[in-house]
């Protein structure tokens, strides 16, 4: 079997992203600590201690539901791209990639493409669009969820409706094979350099057409909606347990808006931006500051950082198995 030797390049400084992540995390922790100190450490601590083990378990279970729904969506897209059957393999790749969720732009999650190439021999041109479809799937699901929550909520969020529309339109534009192929061609004509690179980019853009089946797209959107709605519902439960009188749809709108807004900052995992937006919106809803800070800290730990923790556990296994299975693929 002829193998495509082109693989996503390893970062020239493997320590750079972890250091950046650690620095941003420290800034976020410092910011939350400052807010907690301003509102009273004891009050914030008391709010967090209102949660029992069972309540924390429910929050984590809803996050797991989100991860599994999105991993199933990855599996569906993988079959469209030509991956051989392997649900467990696809789940392993997707969950292991969560370790890289807090890299800038989440580009570290491209490690999944490396694992796919090792274990299946699928060419980069056919597998790389999976990353784009995954990002687009999240944008569509969160945009639709935000729009629906706003429509059903008794409260409004300034700028939320345009953000929901932008998320959906961006996802649709970035997954249109003809549009991206035309853009790559036009860019090459302007630059006039690196014909092999642009040829590969055109091939990747054309590959997006294989995901255009309406049934596949509808199923992918449904899986994304279930997943993100589960985390939005977890945020609502958390606020109720902390004594905040925030409605279900308002809580979902705040959670989804803050997550999308944090992503727009370009910071790894939306660090800083998501937390600031969440606390500000909760405060505008009349939630006491100590509750806003405590709820934001808890929901970020049980969603973003819980995912990173799962990724840290699965990543070594995914890396080990991909290296072991690579030899079998190369000897076909």
From TrEMBL:
One of its GO terms (cellular component) is plasma membrane. It is a multi-pass membrane protein. Its main location: membrane. Pfam families: LPG_synthase_TM. The chain crosses the membrane at residues 48-69, 139-158, 208-229, 235-258, 293-318. It is found in: Cell membrane. Keywords: Cell membrane, Membrane, Transmembrane, Transmembrane helix. This is Uncharacterized protein (TIRG00374 family). It comes from Rhodovulum steppense. The lineage of its organism: Bacteria, Pseudomonadati, Pseudomonadota, Alphaproteobacteria, Rhodobacterales.
